[in-house]
């Protein structure tokens, strides 16, 4: 055998853990995504307001012949933060330097990057909320005064040598804007909040990606995928790839409505984008606990999952889409959850207690 059996196992395991409706990207996926990224602001679909605001910032900077203000891109995974960072550099005709919060553990890591910047460079710091405190402080100074203190030596003999840096543009991306310290947030001249996409936008994105991937698809086929993509372009693109496989193997290669529906049924992604785990949670909540309230631990045991999985993987989407509510007394299913499962909620006021009253 010329492969490592343990490697094989962990890959398979990884594939199983990665949900088809996960908003995060796997390593392999990032390479595929690069091919689907819009390259200019004009190519970006949806996010009307952000596009217009950012367009203005960039156009004004170009007219002044200066580096644009620092930009913070915030929003959930898979909505286009990295894409926009690359577009900012492209629109300015500037090189993009790329790093990420977790890669910057010491202030020195950041000093090395910043001191190598040229005028007008765009420095993209992904997951900027995960940068170390010491690096953050150095970044404030670099953003505001275009200066860093490079520390030479160690201990009491160490000296700080101030180093001027040419004007550059910092583009930070974060899925957790709330975790950014105020002073850092305040130093961005412009913050773009990315919102989940409307089905019409996702429909256009699916059409565009299908064109780039050379997939034949009908309008109904595209709409079917868009409607199940949870407002997220990354998920839309992923579902498109799975539906394409199905169309090739089980049909004549064209993604029609029927093909998309059969493929997504096979992958257990329902009409509103809920997968098996999501459905399991609301199903147990409605059928077994009469809609709740029920504590998270009890709910998790009933679904056969870890507490964290239910709380962090399933609930955010269910809460955002109004299927589940978190109350001080526990989780409850909303009328939308009952309706989605094709069930009728118990009449209000008819609880176990009232049923058994004499
Ligand atoms: N507005 C858009 N139009 C077309 N495609 C888009 C758009 N936004 C995102 N995409 C596509 O979705 C995929 C994910 O986008 P991107 O990597 O920019 O997300 P992200 O916000 O950086 O995610 P993460 O938080 O995981 O880093 C990319 O392949 C990109 O092509
Ligand atoms: Mg990204």
Automatic annotation (TrEMBL):
SUPFAM superfamilies to which the protein is assigned, alphabetical: P-loop containing nucleoside triphosphate hydrolases, Winged helix' DNA-binding domain
Renumbered residue ranges of the record's region Large ATPase domain (RuvB-L): 17-197
InterPro entries: AAA+_ATPase, AAA_lid_4, DNA_helicase_Holl-junc_RuvB, P-loop_NTPase, RuvB-like_N, RuvB_wg_C, WH-like_DNA-bd_sf, WH_DNA-bd_sf
Keywords: ATP-binding, Cytoplasm, DNA damage, DNA recombination, DNA repair, DNA-binding, Helicase, Hydrolase, Nucleotide-binding
Domain of life: Bacteria
GO function term, MF aspect, one: four-way junction helicase activity
GO biological process, one term: DNA repair
Pfam families from the UniProt entry: AAA_lid_4 (PF17864), RuvB_N (PF05496), WHD_RuvB (PF05491)
Keyword presence, Disulfide bond: no
GO cellular component, one term: Holliday junction resolvase complex
Residues at which DNA binds: 307, 326, 331
Subcellular location: Cytoplasm
Region listing for Small ATPAse domain (RuvB-S), in residue ranges: 198-268
Binding residues annotated for ATP, in chain numbering: 36-37, 78, 81-83, 144-146, 187, 197, 234
EC number, UniProt record: 3.6.4.-
HAMAP family: DNA_HJ_migration_RuvB
UniProt protein name: Holliday junction branch migration complex subunit RuvB
Source organism phylogeny: Bacteria, Bacillati, Actinomycetota, Actinomycetes, Propionibacteriales
Gene name, Swiss-Prot/TrEMBL: ruvB
């Amino acid at each position: 055998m010329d492969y490592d059996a343990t490697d094989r196992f962990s890959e398979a395991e990884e594939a199983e853990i990665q949900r088809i409706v996960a908003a995060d990207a796997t390593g392999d996926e990032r390479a595929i995504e690069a091919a689907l990224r819009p390259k200019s602001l004009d190519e970006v679909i949806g996010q009307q307001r952000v596009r217009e605001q950012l367009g203005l910032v960039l156009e004004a900077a170009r007219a002044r012949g200066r580096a644009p203000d620092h930009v913070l891109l915030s929003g959930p995974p898979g909505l286009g933060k990295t894409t926009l960072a690359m577009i900012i550099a492209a629109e300015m005709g500037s090189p993009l330097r790329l790093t990420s919060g977790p890669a910057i553990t010491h202030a020195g890591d950041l000093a090395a990057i910043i001191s190598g910047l040229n005028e007008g460079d765009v420095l993209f710091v992904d997951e900027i909320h995960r940068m170390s405190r010491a690096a953050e402080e150095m970044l404030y100074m670099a953003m505001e005064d275009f200066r860093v203190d490079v520390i030479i030596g160690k201990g009491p003999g160490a000296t700080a040598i101030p180093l001027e840096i040419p004007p550059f543009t910092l583009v930070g991306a974060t899925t957790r804007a709330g975790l950014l310290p105020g002073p850092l947030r305040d130093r961005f001249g412009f913050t773009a909040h990315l919102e989940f996409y409307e089905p019409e936008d996702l429909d256009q994105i699916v059409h565009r990606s299908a064109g780039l991937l050379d997939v034949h698809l009908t309008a109904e086929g595209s709409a079917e995928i868009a409607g199940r993509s949870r407002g997220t372009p990354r998920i839309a693109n992923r579902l498109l790839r799975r539906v394409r496989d199905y169309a090739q193997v089980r049909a004549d290669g064209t993604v029609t409505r029927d093909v998309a529906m059969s493929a997504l049924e096979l992958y257990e992604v329902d009409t509103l984008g809920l997968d098996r785990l999501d459905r399991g949670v609301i199903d147990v909540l409605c059928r077994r606990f009469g809609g709740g309230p029920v504590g998270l631990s009890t709910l998790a045991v009933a679904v056969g999952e870890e507490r964290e999985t239910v709380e962090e993987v399933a609930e955010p989407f269910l809460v955002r889409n109004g299927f589940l509510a978190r109350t001080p007394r526990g989780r409850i299913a909303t009328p939308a959850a009952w309706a989605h499962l094709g069930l009728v909620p118990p009449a209000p006021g008819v609880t176990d207690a009232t049923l058994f009253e004499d």
